[in-house]
Amino acid sequence: MPYSNSMTVGKYLVKRLEEAGLKHIFGVPGDYVLGFFDLLEASRMKVICTCNELNAGYAADAYARINGVGAVCVTYGVGGFSLFNAAVGAFAERVPLIVISGGPKLSERSHRHLLHHTIGDMNLQYNIYEKITVASTVLLSPEQAPREIDNTIAACLRYKRPVYIEVPVDIITKPCGEPGPFKPDTSIKSDKASLDEAVAETAAILSTAKNPAILAGVEVHRFNIRKELEELINHTGYPFASNLLGKAVLPEKHPQFTGVYNGAIGPESTRRVVEEADVLLSLGSLMTDVNLGIGTARLDISRMVVANSDNVRIKHHIYQHVGLKDFIAGLCSKLPAGKADLGKIDHPSKALKEDFTPVAGQKLTISRFYRRINHFIDKNHVILADAGDSLFCSAELFLPEGVEYIGQAFYLSIGYSLPATLGVELAAPDRRPVLFVGDGAFQMSAQELSTIIRNGLNPIIFLINNDGYTIERVINDGPYNDIKMWKYSMLPQVFGGGWGAEVKTEGELEDALKRAKDNPDSLAFIEVRLDKWDCSSILRNVGKLLGKQNVYR
Amino acid sequence: MPYSNSMTVGKYLVKRLEEAGLKHIFGVPGDYVLGFFDLLEASRMKVICTCNELNAGYAADAYARINGVGAVCVTYGVGGFSLFNAAVGAFAERVPLIVISGGPKLSERSHRHLLHHTIGDMNLQYNIYEKITVASTVLLSPEQAPREIDNTIAACLRYKRPVYIEVPVDIITKPCGEPGPFKPDTSIKSDKASLDEAVAETAAILSTAKNPAILAGVEVHRFNIRKELEELINHTGYPFASNLLGKAVLPEKHPQFTGVYNGAIGPESTRRVVEEADVLLSLGSLMTDVNLGIGTARLDISRMVVANSDNVRIKHHIYQHVGLKDFIAGLCSKLPAGKADLGKIDHPSKALKEDFTPVAGQKLTISRFYRRINHFIDKNHVILADAGDSLFCSAELFLPEGVEYIGQAFYLSIGYSLPATLGVELAAPDRRPVLFVGDGAFQMSAQELSTIIRNGLNPIIFLINNDGYTIERVINDGPYNDIKMWKYSMLPQVFGGGWGAEVKTEGELEDALKRAKDNPDSLAFIEVRLDKWDCSSILRNVGKLLGKQNVYR
Fold this sequence. Notes:
alpha/beta, Rossmann fold, seven-stranded mixed beta sheet, globular
């Protein structure tokens, strides 16, 4: 794989990807992008090929959540459109994902050739990606390519959302200018007057507040404002909650942490802190239906200050161009120091105070399983959960400091989490991922277990097998919620690595947990067999609520 | 599952789907579409749930190719976008596919709610599908829904391309008018004057032709013009060829059949008939790069009459609004009867004249494998092939009358064929599918083997295992073309049905073929182990050509 000394568009793009912070890039090769794969192989990045493109997208998304940026590279049409759902999910959940697609060569773009992997319209893929990215480009000219590449990648890093770069197959070898220093402006600029006024108004409201609280959301993580927010919390003494998409955005062991807010379906003590606050500061939180307890949240907008990445809403008026980081820093300097009233806080760590004593022959239940797992998680882990009961149950796990939590808690692509586990461990090689995934979700993307094995990774995967789409059963059951029962625990053998076990009792679970701890370098694939209708009480509530809202019959 | 007597939008849609000719509908449930799944379950159609949405789309596409129409039903966002690539492929290859997606309820569509499975823009999915469908609609009003449904389904049947119907979750129970008789106008209307002139000009050109020939393409199959074309061929005595996407569009045993034309990479005798014709009638053929031998076709437009579904091009002028069926019928009545010069035709059935004698201990090679298979195919089969060498090799198999050939020979989605096998067998339950799929392609959609087993189907699947993406190796090799080796033949056991075998020698292949014949009701999953670089000479040519055209380095 020659890598000549003169600069080309392909090499320029590779260099910027490296400089953006990528150590890995995910993808599936194809003939519109083989030359670029050669350049990637010759780069400092490691190319991680998955079994299909959608899964590459999911892996890159999860990688981005940990690493700060992720990238996926595929061929045109069949590749770009197969991974599309992953890019939509990244847009929804503010994930900085760079999508790179090969494309038809320059001379074939202007007229309607029926080239393979196309429908004859060479602008189709660009036109579609343009709708779900914050910047998108087709590199049509070697003169303009460097600036296009720089601007597109900068937009990804600034807005924490996907961008799209289409690379016609023959442009990569075209000479272009040498790259200058890569100093993209990725800050969200605040308008000073708006910022000052928003901070002043918020401080004035808080000056008479009796029991203010903070709701911390996912943007605090994405825009890397954790330190600033923790300072604000320490400085003011306010209690705070997170939510499903923002779980573990701040350390859960923080004494002022009150739990994961989820309207009436989350913990009651958390609900009270959030909903009974006379001033609620919502910082970086996305007001999604899932974050709001599926319509059960009772938040009074007239008592709220809602700050997102680039604006602040107080009651019913909005300040635009106010960056979240600046706003938090502004509050920290303007608000008086306060002392936390810890007596009022029902700290989620209390779950750990109660010992768990396994009963060897006793059939496992979902509630006993997660109670056991609460004692199993250690600071070395990263927790992942797929959509469904796994998400709701694992959200109630109490996480040690530094343990990240990865789940698509808004867009909810079932099947996301297994490829995500691949992405997470490559982004954080010193961590051991622990995944909770239902059987229905697992079947969606099952082949990536082989990619996890292929890369020598060691996650602990709990396949929660209750024989079907339980989340849908509790909403509206029908034969369509049944799936085929597999002999799941044979899969590590089929894919050639790690070990699998099926556990039905508390004793068998203990053995499997021990085996996982004792074999820290090996994939542990643990199938947890549960009764078909065994699910959490939260999920039952979610089911009732969604069923009622959508009135199926 | 109640199914009340009064008509509703949901029941109306179900009735029209039944009347359009659907006996099965593919999909994956989700909460925006559970109510509609209830109606589907109560209908005369059988609901076939796959492991993921993309695979449901592929299955429905293949079902449509056999059945004349196919449908897939998924939830909003995560469902609709995951299957998107299948819909693009159906558009490219003219497949009548009805895509049905649930959607947010009517009251939540007008403002930007952050509902799960959305990015907050409720028009996104419609706007995207609109680009690759011939009709698309969101059912927003019970008054207009019946007409919208009728028109959309009619467009699918008329133009043989995908349509999109979005069903907001709460509209399905809204009362609407009773359906009248379903008599959609699905004909392609010809302008009589244009038709007459086009036929007359073509007849005049042919009147002095010395060695005319016909190239028959996929639209003859899609628009159901087989009988008319066969009449024309019998009447004129012209020799004819098909191409990759149109393979088996007419019976290959027809004495005037000269083979599958593929430029210089297909059979030389076929190339000569097509390229040396003084008048070439191209009927329903798509001029794709793959159909044209990857740029090796030497077709002289000034000696061609190119008729497609609704227009005719003679040399450099075009007649619009001329239906293909009318044009063929017109030629048949206008042209004088002729006698075929069979002595000139090098009939592809000659491959069968040579016996195949297996050598028990001899290692299998790709060329010996397909020579053996040529004697194995019987009239009860349907042949499927995935993109890659499987497609090129199986295109040279000589097919008995009535044996259909299914492959995505233009859009080339790797991974299409395994879910397609599911769709094909449900559409033609009296047939036994025979699938050729490479290991790389298989890994893309491997989980649908479980759906094939779940539905009690009996295809014979040849997994051609040469350890990686061979089609890409011959274009441009690199480590990205490696994939993880699986113990493939264990998969039937994991998924709970059928049997698997690994064959390395000619003797082992004989045993497996016998076992497949002797167990006609069971899935036969035969892993054919080949050397890494063992592929057909056609594929080597394809690789060189694509490599040269795209100049990777």
